[in-house]
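ARCHIVE CARD
Drawer: 12
Card no.: 0347
Subject: one protein chain, sequence and derived structure
Cross-reference: see card 0346
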Amino acid sequence: MGKWLHVFSFKIVLLSLLASLPAEATEPFRLYGSEAIYSVERKGKTIGEYRLAFRAQPDDRLVVNVSMQLQLRYLGLFKYDFSYRAEEVWQAADRLVAMQVSIDDDGGTHSYRIERRSDGLYRLSGDTDAVRLGDTLLTSNHWHSGLVEQSRLINTLTGEVSRLNVVLQGEERIQIGARQVRARRYHLGGELEDTLSWYDEQGRWLGMEFSARDGSRIRLRLQPDAELAEREKP
């Protein structure tokens, strides 16, 4: 009897774990369509936009273009501009093949690229030697909900690998346009200690929150143009 109880308990735990995994984590066209747009807010005011664009390629490849534009103004005396652009290339949406990133941080620019070689992913920047990052890594562009199951990812702002200690904090309802959506709130932890990220039950990324340099909180929110209707793959 004890043996069967042990097996039954194991099955319950396994089913519970499987139920917590987002079923659509690797189906971006079904989750987002060809594009998803997020507002970027600080202290309740919109200061920019974050945009994801998805494009299918031959050989089961997926190209994801990511952009973020931020603009802050203080009493007309001070301004701050930030621009981020990335292009990710994936094999079947689960295996990163290459990435290019360019950042303009209020006039200070830097860029790098990542390429897959026979033994994993490497970061290349300027004239420096290639740095091996690992193999099965996701990126901090967040659209892939498999991120919440990782202990490491590529921090796309730095090109470095960041450690995570992800904790599911609970479920809540958040407003997306005219709709309230059931969301799971994750604390990413580790080297992204100040970051929260929200996904719906299908694995669609709904937004995130993190701390700015001045300690204020920045919030990204999915916009209603990317409403949560079921979409068919093109």
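Annotation on reverse: The helical segments are 2-20, 28-32. The longest strand covers residues 61-74.
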